[in-house]
Specification:
347 residues, mainly beta, 4-stranded antiparallel sheet, 34 strands, flat
Length: 347
Amino acid sequence: MKKIIFLLLLTSLCFSSFSQGLFPFKKGDLWGYIDSTGKEVISPQFPMAGFFYEGFAYAQFGEALGYIDITGKEVIKAKYPAVYNFHEGFAGVMEDEDWGVINTKGEMVIEPMYAAPLVFHNGLARFKQERGLFSTYGFVNTKGDTVIYPEFEKVSEFSDGLCMASKDGYKYGYINTKGEWAIEPTFDIGAAMKINGEYDFSDKDFSGGFAAVLLEDKYGLMDKTGKIALDFKFAFIGKFSEGLAPAKMDSLYGYINPKGNWIIKPKYNGAEMFSHGLAAVSKGPFLDELWGFIDHTGKEVIPLTIVGNYTYLVPMKFWDGVVACYVEKDVYGYINRLGKVIWKMDK
């Protein structure tokens, strides 16, 4: 079998039901799982292992990847060179360089024929019509039926029932789950970052009923009817979570409510979304800033001593009482809500 492709795919796409209270840790050359206190629950036995999503984690057996449950038992046979995390009850798996979809029983519900993993949001998954740079995007349902014809040059994923989309690659609007324009494409798409070869437009997703929109280098908020709900006056607005969104004024970040009022005044170099009552913030010189966590009042709950996030692909968040991060320079580990390191990788 081909060399296993390592996909620790923890994008903004796959946050639901993350971890189930277990976290992969490495001892020697093998991976096992600890709980939020640092106690070993599943002994190190896997050459490769991922985080738990919706009760399943991918793990390596021999030369292939499959899925285990929270007891460490192999519940979906390891026979794939690459896999994706479960989301909305389905996971992408690769066969012969093509991606298909399995359900939680391990049954192939969408035959392998796609160039990239299908990840479901609001019951729909984005797909490319063809391989290559100039392919267009559409959406399939969980049965593999094409429900939105691949006619879009650029798309995001569905959130709050809407999805950012563009037919010409320059102007974007939002489509509903039928592929109809809910908000006409009148906004400039601007620059976008590429992740795994695909453009990331997650900053344009709806959250809490609002999406951040840009006009003349300033951000405002738009509601799901397309009405501008907050004037364009911020240097940046992130996603809403627990009623607040990180926002930037001049060069510093704070947190606003949907009315644009500062609930936590801007004084941070960086700021992430709230999760389970806490949000990660940073201070310090560029590339040497340190992170910590604050509560909804702006009170510092965990001192700013964390070296950095373990990946730029996902926000620094607590999951089941633990945050994955760099606890020291080049040292990956986990910190609990008291700020205590419960495990760190050997240097």
